[in-house]
Amino acid sequence: MKKLDFSQPLMVLAPLAGYTDLPFRAVVKKFGADLTISEMISSNALVYNSQKTFKMIEKSPSEDPYFVQIAGNKAELVRDAVEILNDMEGIDGIDLNCGCPAPKVFNHGSGSNLLGDLKKLEEILGTVKKYNKKLYTSAKVRIGVNEKIPVDIAKAVESCGVDFISVHGRTRAGKYKAPVDYDAIKAIKEAVSIPVIANGDIKDYAKAKEVLAHTKADGLMIGRGAIGKPWIFYQLKNGVEDISEDIKKAIILEHYDAVLRFHGEHGAIMFRKLLHSYSKGYNGASEFRDIINTIKEPDIMRDTIESFFTENELQN
């Protein structure tokens, strides 16, 4: 049974370390994301039974379909990680990270390091495909390490028999600052027969429409563009440019409540960094941030959030 429908552009939440935990994924799922993916999971941590890692894999009942993204550079460890995931209920696909530019991931030989050795990439991704008993296998890539080789990478990925590829339109050297090369994503779309998901700097509704039109991609993967603006999925799903302040407030409070349920009382402190993003551009945002940085009590935090966004709602 297929759970992904590519007849319409697929809207995917990108895995983002420290942000796309279960509460955040549940919120974007409710408001329009077609597919959610776990934060990047180390194959080593999974195989060596890290409890923190197993907590990161937990999903909300609403996350259907749901993928787990793994990283790894040793075929045997990746195989063992896949077999552990095979025994877990509620996972529909396994995604291999071939794009993370972080030095500790790259220097370990994982993530975007694989783009510098396409034979190695094929070995690791082929291992995922061979042992994966879930519905889907996919890969997330960049367009090179230092030089751009988008089509070579895409053809290597396609040769492993994956169901689709997600492409961040920068090299590893480009980190998150270089201009995104949407032409490279378009070239990949033209070169392979599997669905292609475009990723990179898709920060608002207008940009999302522009990227889809330019690349002819089969969907969009949005990561940092959803931090502080998870309603971007609601906009894309419903074809609306403007979101009312009351919907924004409802999403923020729902996110806060979900964080408390999942992380316990400490969630109030964890939510501060998210409130810094949510409050950007609002009147009194700077004072609001100063206040919430001192609050530890969940109830007081919730009241403060509600009154701040209600006040701004009334002013608009």
Structural class: alpha/beta
State the order of secondary-structure elements, H for helix, E for strand.
Answer: EHEEHHEHEHHEHEHEHEHHHHHH
Task: Give Rg in angstroms.
Answer: 20 Å
Could you tell me the strand content as a percent range? 5-15%
Given this structure, which CATH class of the largest domain is correct? Alpha Beta
Query: What is the CATH architecture assignment of the largest domain?
Result: Alpha-Beta Barrel
Overall pLDDT score: 95
End-to-end gap? 46 Å
How many domains comprise the coordinates?
2
Number of helices: 15
| Biggest beta-sheet profile | 9 strands, parallel
Weakly predicted, low-confidence segments: none
Organism: Arcobacter nitrofigilis (strain ATCC 33309 / DSM 7299 / CCUG 15893 / LMG 7604 / NCTC 12251 / CI) (Campylobacter nitrofigilis)
Cofactor: FMN
Family: Belongs to the dus family.
GO molecular function: flavin adenine dinucleotide binding; tRNA binding; tRNA dihydrouridine synthase activity
